[in-house]
Amino acid sequence: MKFSRVFLISGILLASISLTCAAKGGKVYTWTDSKGVVHYGEHPPKDVQAKLVKTRTGYSEPTPTPSTTAQATPQQGVTTAVDTASLKDAERCNKAQENLNILNSGAPVRTSNEKGERVIMSEEEKDKQRNIFQLIVNQAC
């Protein structure tokens, strides 16, 4: 009884590890066969045109923080009504306003440094972030 339970748990762990490794780094292709059935796999058949599927792993590269000078001068002052309207985003506006309220509250604000350690923002860092969020509010609201 104990042996079968250990064997079952070992099998489940082995299967989950192998599935995780396969999903982590492999490419996935999709193609349709002559009967119209859609297939997915790591290796497409040679005689069929296949498309590479963009898979998501749950990890993404961090988005670089925009510099304040780049946002302050929008392309030599050439701004049309369409450009201004396309920047309006209620969700982005609300989030930027929330962040400004947090920064202006006077409470300590925690962030992650280059090493991934949790640290409290200095007043200088808060000022930089305030400027960035104020620019976003000006654009998106």
Give descriptors for this structure.
single chain; 141 residues; alpha+beta; two-stranded antiparallel sheet; flat
Describe this protein's structure.
- This protein is of the alpha+beta class and 141 residues long.
- The chain is 49% helix and 13% strand.
- It contains five helices and five strands.
- The strands form two sheets. It has a three-stranded antiparallel sheet, with no helix packed on it. Strands 4-5 form a two-stranded antiparallel sheet.
- Strand 4 and strand 5 form a beta hairpin.
- Helix 4 (90-104) runs antiparallel to helix 5.
- The longest helix has 24 residues, at 2-25.
- The N and C termini lie far apart (66 Å).
- Mean pLDDT is 74; it is low at 68-82.
Topology:
Blueprint: H1 2-25, E1 28-32, E2 38-41, E3 51-53, H2 68-72, H3 81-87, H4 90-104, E4 110-112, E5 118-120, H5 123-140
Antiparallel strand pairs: 1-2, 1-3, 4-5
Q: For the CA atoms, what is the radius of gyration?
A: 25 Å
| N-to-C order of helices and strands | HEEEHHHEEH
How far apart the termini lie comes to 66 Å
- What does the largest sheet look like? 3 strands, antiparallel
**Helix content percent band:** 40-55%
* Spans where pLDDT lies below 50 across 5 or more residues: 68-82
The amount of beta strand, in percent, is 5-15%
Q: What is the typical, i.e. mean, pLDDT? A: 74
**Structure annotation, total helices:** 5
Strand order of the largest sheet: 2-1-3
Query: How would you sum up the global shape?
Result: flat
* Strand element count: 5
Structural class estimated from helices and strands: alpha+beta
